[in-house]
């Protein structure tokens, strides 16, 4: 049985398996530009973050109705339960849907209809994290936050994702402040492809409480010391880093060095349908390629609960 863990870096749209994409395309009378599941899966060969994002956004076109979002979330929860996930903090990208004419309510109602019964159905508690697309304007992010106001009881935090380089965190200072004023927690992707300065800026300008990815902190000794001292969590995604070529091979992944430096590291799957495995598969990959010990895997699992936004009561019950 996989070790119990939390998953803190998971894009629900990145759990869209090719089989489900074809099912939803059929249900919605959409013709995908791929003849079959295998041809689509074969297209999952990426050179960098942007080459992945191009396919990720294109394939989302099959997500049209509340039932589609419900089925997407249910499929993830079923797989996550088998991977030992007991708590999941799930990203979604509202702008990727509203810009295609899908109402925000459709997205949120579909997702929450699955998440609301997840503890009973799958033994997994969940939080939702609304992400702003950093390659869109700051005004569009603010409009998205405004549109989400009636749904804030479903939302725990805001995040920042999509194309990193050239879209630094400080572009979104105002909307992150507005989110904090609404009582939302804050996380941000930083230091995936972008430089260590983006991590500093996510902390200092956005008030990010967790850094998603953050692997480029290893380029900046002062930042390593700061992150270790403050025990700021980093949600690292090893398979993603290799597939998007942020790291050449799993054997060369900096995760062991990050742990040795005293960082609060967690392991996550990012977009598991695209990157070759779910969260426990990432744990096993690290064990196999980097020789992580059972004790180190237990530390990573414990870190995942420590780094979560769970109440102290449920956190203590899970650790
Ligand atoms: N959106 C989905 N996956 C992402 C990633 N790994 N980095 C940035 N944005 C994303
Ligand atoms: Zn991500």
UniProtKB/TrEMBL annotation:
One of its GO terms (molecular function) is hydrolase activity. Catalyzes the hydrolytic deamination of adenine to hypoxanthine. Plays an important role in the purine salvage pathway and in nitrogen catabolism. Its EC number is 3.5.4.2. The active site is at residue 192. Belongs to the metallo-dependent hydrolases superfamily. Adenosine and AMP deaminases family. Adenine deaminase type 2 subfamily. Residues 4-319 form the Adenosine deaminase domain. It holds the Pfam family A_deaminase. This is Adenine deaminase.
């Amino acid at each position: 049985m996989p070790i119990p863990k939390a998953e803190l870096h998971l894009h629900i749209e990145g759990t869209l398996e090719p089989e489900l994409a074809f099912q939803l395309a059929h249900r919605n009378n959409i013709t995908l530009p791929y003849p079959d599941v295998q041809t689509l899966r074969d297209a999952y060969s990426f050179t960098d973050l942007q080459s992945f994002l191009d396919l990720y956004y294109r394939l989302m076109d099959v997500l049209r109705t509340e039932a589609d979002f419900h089925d997407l979330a249910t499929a993830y929860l079923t797989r996550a339960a088998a991977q030992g996930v007991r708590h999941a903090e799930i990203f979604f990208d509202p702008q990727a849907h509203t810009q295609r004419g899908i109402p925000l309510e459709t997205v949120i109602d579909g997702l929450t209809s699955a998440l609301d019964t997840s503890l009973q159905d799958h033994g997994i508690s969940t939080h939702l994290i609304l992400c702003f697309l950093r390659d869109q304007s700051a005004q569009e992010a603010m409009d998205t936050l405004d549109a989400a106001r009636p749904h804030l009881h479903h939302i725990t935090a805001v995040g920042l994702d999509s194309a990193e380089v050239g879209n630094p965190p400080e572009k979104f200072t105002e909307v992150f402040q507005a989110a904090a004023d609404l009582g939302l927690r804050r996380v941000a992707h930083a230091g995936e492809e972008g430089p260590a300065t983006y991590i500093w800026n996510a902390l200092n300008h956005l008030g990010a409480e967790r850094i998603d990815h953050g692997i480029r902190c290893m380029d900046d000794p002062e930042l390593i010391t700061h992150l270790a001292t403050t025990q700021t969590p980093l949600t690292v995604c090893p398979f993603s880093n290799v597939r998007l070529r942020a790291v050449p091979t799993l054997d060369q992944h900096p995760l062991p060095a990050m742990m040795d430096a005293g960082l609060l590291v967690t392991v996550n799957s990012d977009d598991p349908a695209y990157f070759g495995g779910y969260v426990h598969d990432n744990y096993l990959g690290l064990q196999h390629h980097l020789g992580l010990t059972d004790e180190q895997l237990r530390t990573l699992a414990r870190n995942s609960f420590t780094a979560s936004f769970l109440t102290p009561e449920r956190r203590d019950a899970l650790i």
